[in-house]
Amino acid sequence: MVHTPQPTALPATLRNPVTAAGSVPWDLAGGFLAMAALLVLWSSLIWKRHRTRSPEPDRLIPILLNGAACIPAMMAWFAWGLSRIAPLTLADRWLVALALAWVLAPFAALALSAAGEALTRAGNRGSPEPEDPQD
């Protein structure tokens, strides 16, 4: 008696890969863009406030503040995205989202700090220099 293997059923995404690759979750993309825009706004506000305190500010404080803002924002976005694409329980989803945010937040904080610094530097380019209060 010879056992012939039965063909396994392919998932719908593999049966029709064109529609699987073409379907874009636009709400996740829009949520990501909104989160990124708010984080860049937050970073520019941090740098604007930080520049008023000293003419050549230390970069460590804005990087840490950007990282503190990145972790909850990225964690919420990852949890929302995972709820749509991964069959995880609520606790597992938030733990995976926390792990992803924890790993990616330092890189996002560095990028946001650079963007905020560039935006505030470009905004101060046309304005006159403030007078030195010691003169």
Task: Explain the overall architecture.
This protein is mostly helical. The protein has one domain (27-124). It is built from 5 helices and no strands. The protein has helices spanning 12-15, 17-22, 26-53, 60-85, 90-124. Helix 3 crosses helix 5 (90-124). The longest helix is centred in the last third of the chain and has 35 residues, at 90-124. The termini are far apart. Mean pLDDT is 76; it is low at 16-21.
Mean pLDDT: 76
From the alpha carbons, calculate the radius of gyration and give it in angstroms.
23 Å
- Biggest sheet, in brief? none
Indicate the structural class. mainly alpha
How does the SSE layout of this entry go?
Blueprint lengths: L11 H4 L1 H6 L3 H28 L6 H26 L4 H35 L11
Helix pairs in contact: 3-4, 3-5, 4-5
List keywords for this structure.
mainly alpha, 73% helix, 135 residues, single chain
Please sum up the structure shown:
The protein is mainly alpha-helical. The chain has one domain (27-124).
